[in-house]
């Protein structure tokens, strides 16, 4: 690892060049022939002067500093950093997709329309919901879309409900999305098993409450076993159940939210369906709904044209601007008067949808079912290996992830953050830390199904060595990491005052 890769500007040496073209042998025309004088730059840009090999080495080294699933194990709980098969990238780069323009006439886009339509059908199949929109650009955006749909539904039915109930283990985006829709958020405390407390739910879910927003499996990696009863309590009070399905891994091929009584659900294609993520996107957070919420979905909806050839020909004669589509062709239907409208330009991040579709087709139905089984198996195997060394407060059989508490280690002066940092020295990405909020000194571990038993062993060995070190020489863990390009950045400062340009350093 190159510890101190200088900035490309610091490598600059006057006169050094990458590629020197031969002298121009035709008369040059003044640049103002092409670009108006007032639009020309006043002074030369200060660019680094470097050779080609300097540039290649510089950027190749920088690329190695980025941690990714392609280089090592990435057990970032709740984020499902599973391997993204390269075939997904190949299909997303097919020219027929990359060269499409969103303003192209619909009859020229039938291929992508078919893909999106089919993807919606597969998601319907997997989740048990009745219809999907693929538009939302992330999980949080899916939640916002879902909240807008709930609000539109309640308004349509003349219901004045201003509250959303959310368990205290929820992902932070849940309350944020609800309040963005001007809902008041009420948190309910989980019971000692880490699950929703039915008695409490019954007490707080009153006639002024629009919905319960749950995550199942929840962020402790536990399945809400009373889900049928939970949905009944909410429905009996005239409310709706929203499910945060960002991490659907554990349910794939085993159980369907639609069958549990969930009314509305978002999925994260960029978690469960393997499309890459991190670094802020792009993502895709499709939202699925039951029949009664269908009219409120965002438009346009992708549908199959229903009209017969004769009817179409008749329409075309009347209106020459009508697309020349045949029945069974795909259309974008805007005719939903109760729709919440568009939530994204065009049809969302279709590159992500192509990847997810490829992933689903290449796994096939059987393969998709195995994802659920293996993700649960891997998480339980790892949990079992670690439970002698770390406290696991809700340590029952877990789903796709589990949460360790470093409370015991904290008494020796070693925090969850220290443990996370020490893992970097072993070449692993750290697990999610300090979430969910209800676990003290939390480390949330999600191995995903794509990891081999050998990888799990190496990771477990590292965790066990760290636990031993905390007993014997805690300073090693407290001073980690030692082997990474930078040690411990001031994360708050880095986020609030990012210096992203050479000029920022020069000031
Ligand atoms: C990741 C995640 C989200 C938010 O998804 P984004 O795509 O990051 O907006 C919501 N809920 C849970 C449980 C998540 O893990």
UniProtKB/TrEMBL annotation:
Catalyzed reactions: N(6)-[(R)-lipoyl]-L-lysyl-[glycine-cleavage complex H protein] + glycine + H(+) = N(6)-[(R)-S(8)-aminomethyldihydrolipoyl]-L-lysyl-[glycine-cleavage complex H protein] + CO2
One biological process term in Gene Ontology: glycine decarboxylation via glycine cleavage system
Protein name: Probable glycine dehydrogenase (decarboxylating) subunit 2
Residue ranges annotated for the Glycine cleavage system P-protein N-terminal domain, each copy included: 33-299
Cofactor: pyridoxal 5'-phosphate
Pfam families: GcvP2_C, GDC-P
Species: Candidatus Brocadia sapporoensis
Protein's job: The glycine cleavage system catalyzes the degradation of glycine. The P protein binds the alpha-amino group of glycine through its pyridoxal phosphate cofactor; CO(2) is released and the remaining methylamine moiety is then transferred to the lipoamide cofactor of the H protein.
Entry superkingdom: Bacteria
Quaternary context: The glycine cleavage system is composed of four proteins: P, T, L and H. In this organism, the P 'protein' is a heterodimer of two subunits.
HAMAP family in alphabetical order: GcvPB
GO CC list: cytosol; glycine cleavage complex
EC number of this enzyme: 1.4.4.2
The keyword RNA-binding is annotated on this UniProt entry: no
Family from the record: Belongs to the GcvP family. C-terminal subunit subfamily.
Annotated positions of the N6-(pyridoxal phosphate)lysine modification: 271
GO MF, any single term: glycine binding
Keyword Oxidoreductase: yes
Keyword annotations from UniProtKB, A to Z: Oxidoreductase, Pyridoxal phosphate
Domain Glycine dehydrogenase C-terminal residue range list: 373-472
């Amino acid at each position: 690892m190159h510890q101190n890769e200088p900035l490309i500007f610091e490598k600059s040496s006057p006169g050094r060049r990458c590629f020197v073209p031969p002298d121009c042998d035709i008369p040059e025309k003044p640049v103002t022939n092409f670009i108006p004088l007032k639009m020309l730059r006043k002074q030369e840009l200060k660019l680094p002067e470097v050779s080609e090999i300097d540039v290649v080495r510089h950027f190749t080294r920088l690329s190695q500093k980025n941690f990714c699933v392609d280089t090592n194990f990435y057990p970032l709980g709740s984020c499902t950093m599973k391997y993204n098969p390269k075939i997904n990238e190949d299909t997303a780069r097919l020219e027929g997709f990359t060269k499409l323009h969103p303003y192209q006439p619909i009859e020229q886009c039938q291929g992508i329309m078919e893909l999106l339509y089919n993807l919606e059908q597969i998601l319907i199949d997997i989740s048990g919901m009745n219809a999907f929109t693929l538009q939302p650009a992330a999980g949080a955006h899916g939640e916002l879309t879902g909240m807008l749909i709930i609000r539109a539904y309640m308004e349509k039915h003349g219901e004045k409900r201003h509250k959303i109930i959310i368990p205290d283990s929820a992902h932070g985006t849940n309350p944020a999305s609800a309040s963005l829709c001007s809902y008041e958020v009420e948190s309910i405390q989980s019971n000692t098993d880490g699950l929703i407390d039915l008695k409490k739910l019954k007490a707080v879910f009153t006639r002024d409450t629009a919905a319960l927003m749950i995550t199942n499996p929840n962020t402790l990696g536990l399945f809400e076993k009373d889900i049928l009863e939970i949905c009944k309590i909410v429905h009996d009070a005239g409310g709706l159940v929203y499910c945060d399905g960002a991490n659907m891994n554990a349910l794939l091929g085993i159980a369907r939210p639609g069958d549990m009584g969930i009314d509305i659900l978002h999925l994260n294609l960029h978690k469960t369906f393997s499309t890459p993520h991190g670094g802020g996107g792009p993502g895709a957070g499709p939202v699925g709904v039951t029949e009664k919420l269908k009219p409120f979905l965002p438009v346009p909806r992708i549908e199959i044209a229903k009209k017969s050839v004769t009817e179409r020909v008749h329409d075309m004669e009347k209106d020459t601007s009508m697309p020349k589509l045949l029945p069974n062709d795909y259309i974008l239907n805007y005719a939903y008067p109760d729709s919440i409208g568009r939530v994204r330009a065009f049809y969302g991040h279709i590159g992500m949808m192509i990847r997810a579709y490829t992933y689903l087709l290449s796994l096939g139905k059987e393969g998709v079912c195995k994802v659920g089984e293996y993700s649960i198996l891997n998480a339980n195997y790892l949990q079992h290996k670690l439970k002698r060394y770390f406290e696991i407060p809700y340590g029952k059989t877990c789903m796709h992830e589990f949460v360790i508490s470093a409370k015991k280690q904290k008494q020796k002066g070693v925090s969850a953050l220290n443990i996370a940092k020490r893992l970097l020295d072993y070449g692993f990405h750290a697990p999610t830390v300090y979430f969910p909020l209800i676990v003290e000194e939390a480390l949330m571990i999600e191995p995903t199904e794509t990891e081999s038993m050998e990888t799990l062993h190496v990771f477990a060995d590292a965790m066990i060595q760290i636990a031993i070190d905390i007993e014997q020489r805690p300073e090693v863990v407290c001073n980690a990491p030692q082997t990474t390009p930078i040690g411990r950045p001031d994360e708050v400062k880095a986020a609030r005052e990012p210096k992203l340009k050479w000029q920022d350093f020069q000031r």
